[in-house]
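Example record for the data management plan.
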Amino acid sequence: MTSSSFNDLLTAQIGNEFSASQQYIAIAVWFDNHDLPQLAAHFYQQSVEERNHAMMLVQYRLDRDLGVTIPGVTAPRTEFANVVEPIELALEQEREVTSQIEALFRAARADGDAIGEQAMLWFLKEQVEEVASMSTLVTIAKRAGDNLFDIENFIARETVGDSGQDADAPAAAGGAL
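Corresponding structural encoding:
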């Protein structure tokens, strides 16, 4: 990532989070279209979570009187050859977001923005959970092979990720969904 200032990267990250939300909707719809309701529900929820992350960054900018620009989003990938592909894409996406948040943290530090640096700590903690849960889901999907009921049962039975509200989470503009 370039050595842009924290402020520039923050605007870009709002778009990245909305793009992640759109990608998760596309994945959820793909699972819905393949009659995998547990996986679809999981990724619909992931989409909402990414939307909330974008709105947390918007609220941060509003609170700091930084002005807000909502960037456009990239078109999501909508076609997959098998059940593992969209989950691997989700893991890749979470790893990319982790790199983006790390760059934001480093930029805030380089800019001498202690408040910005502190704000990114919650997002870094969140990314540890996001990557871990997607890694687990990839492993389960690969182990299940052609038995898609095993993946569906795993999602129904286990808590993958944390869908609850984190009391330490930053406020989202307009309220979290």
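Summary line stored alongside the record: The mean pLDDT is 92.
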